[in-house]
Amino acid sequence: MNTKPSLQESSDLVTNGEAQEIPPLRSYLWLTMFTCFCPAWPINIVALVFSVLAQKSYDEQDYDGSKRLGRKALHLGIVSFVIGLVIITAYIIVHFTTHMSKRKLLQFKDGNNNDKDAGRVNIHKPQPDAHQTRELHLIRLQTTKPHLRRSSG
């Protein structure tokens, strides 16, 4: 059977009479964009770059390169997400343990060891003791009633 030379050449997608399947795009762009909100920025930026490169390779019909870059983007995205969760969890634990220890310390200084009074402790403005209260009262009396001033001497 004689055919024209242009028909004898096979295209890139057809080899030995069978069509090569085009694999689906797996660049994991959605995952890498989501991990950009995690506090592991150097890793998730690299994952985003690999994801974009996988998309570009797929558009250039380099399916093996796209698959390889997509797999790297997936792995880096997962690592970035896990590191972000660890950092957020550590921050929350440190924040709440230091806040609770300050509250317990103030309760101990005030002599209140009851847990029911924990919500009533004023952290920002400590209450004056008896000596300071007496001095404040004398200062108020002296400013409002000048004839009650102490005589120096």
Automatic annotation (TrEMBL):
Q: Which family does it belong to?
A: Belongs to the CD225/Dispanin family.
Q: Where in the cell is it found?
A: Membrane
Transmembrane annotation, as ranges: 28-53, 73-94
Lineage, opening ranks:
Eukaryota, Metazoa, Chordata, Craniata, Vertebrata
Q: Which residues form a coiled coil?
A: none
Its Gene Ontology cellular component terms are: membrane
Alphabetical UniProt keywords: Membrane, Transmembrane, Transmembrane helix
Q: Where is the composition biased (Basic and acidic residues)?
A: 126-135
Q: What is its main location?
A: membrane
Please give the InterPro entries that the UniProt record associates with this protein: CD225/Dispanin (IPR051423), CD225/Dispanin_fam (IPR007593)
Q: What is the protein's given name?
A: Transmembrane protein 233-like protein
* Cross-referenced Pfam families: CD225
Region described as Disordered: 116-135
